[in-house]
Design goal:
The structure is a single chain. By secondary structure, the protein is α+β, with helices and mostly antiparallel strands. The chain has 2 domains: 272 residues, Zn peptidases (Aminopeptidase, 3-Layer(aba) Sandwich), CATH 3.40.630; 189 residues, 2-Layer Sandwich (Alpha-Beta Plaits), CATH 3.30.70. The protein contains 10 helices and 25 strands. The strands form 7 sheets. Strands 1-2-6-3-7-23 form a 6-stranded mixed sheet, sandwiched between helices. A hairpin with a 3-residue loop joins strand 1 and strand 2. The two termini are 16 Å apart.
């Protein structure tokens, strides 16, 4: 077996320069969803269309069959046979944010200290190319595919997932598949997801004896992270005493009777709210210290205290659950907005297979009715779980061990990968334990060693799944 793995590495060394050139060309394309530039063959905008065209040019250069499905998705194919082995990756990216926050230009592939930097380099352009080069290496080495291998590339993974809906209208499901958009060893479980907002009406008028009234709460309206920055404004009859209470604020400013407090948390993915400090919780702890005398905002204060404050698992709302195979529920608050009449409190709830989507939605509806809230659901995904004894899992484990020498342990994540679009699929790489790819953050990166090892693992995986 060692000679076979060595032959993969030898062929990868032959392609190393071309791989880096291809990745640089993909990273240079700002493939962010832009509906203002959409067209008949570019439903997600010209940036994503350009990324599709670039990938098609690689396939045509290398004489692979490729089919474009109206700009929603494309596939690149190798091998023969009725059965299909799938690899699902995506070419769209999230926006880069402030370029000044990057150490390197996010759209110039930068090789620094053993890492490659650039937006999309880990999520998901380098992993997509890793899978593509695995197909090339196996073909070069003369392996005969008795199952078709299709690298299926979508254009809306970071947004609406219309790409996969469209693709599978015209193509059968693979019998087995993986998505190189997670972690090694094997992500055989992905928690269910329900994202949405609660809306809470506040009293029209402050109570007469109130000392402090909430005027405004502002935070970035995004759902991918817990609340990182929060600006709160009060009208106060005693601003100096209020300033002394707001001890967790990073800054407090008084302008006559207007008190402005700025709270800062940590940039932490909303699927992992336990890993970072939420600015809303800092504000909430200060708000709880305002004893009596709170007028406008007291409804929010009560809701926060009873059901949300410092709870990252949904226990206070009766949503906590734990599954021996998939772990605990998580609940995060990505943002809160208020301009004097109604609060919007965004939530991101993730749950194991011991709960169902219907059960959770019923619980949320019941909670909303009891507490006089309006409920809006914006995104729903059922849990994904592939049994450890399945052919897919056992084959991936075999491939992983042959390359790394280590057992491929199974894990559950809170993230959302294309594996959810499959009847039988899991997330499989590219990151290893200890990697910090900065997914969706500034300075997104992938370790070169990680990328190369992923390619070799994918070579052996496809050999086992699809060749004689």
């Amino acid at each position: 077996m060692g000679n076979l793995i060595d032959s993969y590495y030898e062929r990868l060394r032959y392609y190393e320069e071309q791989l880096m050139d291809d990745l640089a060309e993909l990273v240079a394309i700002r493939s962010v969803r832009d509906l203002e530039s959409k067209d008949s063959n570019s439903p997600f905008g010209m940036g994503i269309r350009d990324a599709f065209d670039k990938m098609i040019s690689f396939a045509e250069r290398d004489s692979f069959i490729n089919v474009d499905f109206d700009g929603y998705a494309l596939h690149i194919e190798s091998g023969q046979g009725e059965e299909v082995i799938g690899i699902l990756a995506h070419l769209d990216i999230v926006p880069e944010g402030e370029k000044d926050d990057w150490s390197f230009d996010p759209f110039i592939l930068t090789n620094h200290d053993g890492f490659l930097y650039g937006r999309g380099v880990n999520d998901d352009k380098a992993p997509a190319l890793a899978s593509y080069y695995a197909m090339k290496i196996l073909r070069d080495l003369g392996f005969v595919f008795n199952r078709k291998v299709r690298l299926i590339l979508g254009g809306a993974e970071e947004t609406s997932w219309e790409c996969m809906d469209h693709y599978f209208k015209y193509n059968p499901q693979p019998i087995m598949a993986f998505s190189p958009d997670g972690d090694f060893p094997i992500v055989n479980g992905e928690k269910g997801v329900i994202q949405g907002s609660f809306y809470l009406k506040d009293d029209e008028l402050p109570i007469k004896e109130s000392q402090h009234d909430l005027l405004v709460i502002e935070s970035e309206k995004q759902r991918g992270f817990i609340c990182e920055n929060l600006i709160v404004k009060f009208h106060s009859h005693n601003p100096n005493s209020l300033k002394d209470i707001l001890i967790e604020a990073a800054e407090v400013h008084c302008d006559n009777e207007i008190v402005t407090a700025i709270y800062r948390g940590e940039k932490t993915l909303s699927r992992n709210p336990h890993k970072g400090a939420n600015a809303i919780f800092k504000f909430g702890r200060d708000l709880m210290c305002i004893e009596g005398g709170i007028g406008k905002g007291r409804n929010f204060k009560g809701l926060l205290e009873r059901f949300l404050l410092d709870d990252v698992h949904g226990e206070k709302m009766g949503l906590y659950d734990e599954d021996s195979e998939m772990g605990e529920t998580t609940l995060s608050i990505p943002y809160v907005l208020y301009k004097g009449r109604e609060f919007e409190i965004a939530f991101d709830y993730r749950f194991p297979k011991s709960r169902t989507q219907e059960n959770v939605q019923n619980k949320l509806t019941e909670f909303s009715v009891i507490n006089c809230l309006s409920l809006e659901i914006s995104k729903v995904h059922q849990p994904l779980y592939v049994h450890p004894d399945s052919e897919l899992i056992t084959t991936l484990q075999q491939a992983y061990k042959r390359v790394t020498g280590e057992n491929a342990e199974l894990m559950t994540k809170g993230g959302i990968s294309y594996a959810r679009a499959l009847n039988c699929g899991v997330a499989f790489g590219p990151s290893f334990q200890g990697d910090t790819p900065n997914t969706h953050k500034q300075n997104e990166k992938i370790r070169i060693e990680t990328l190369y090892k992923a390619i070799i693992i994918y070579c052996e995986t496809l050999r086992l799944l699809a060749t004689r």
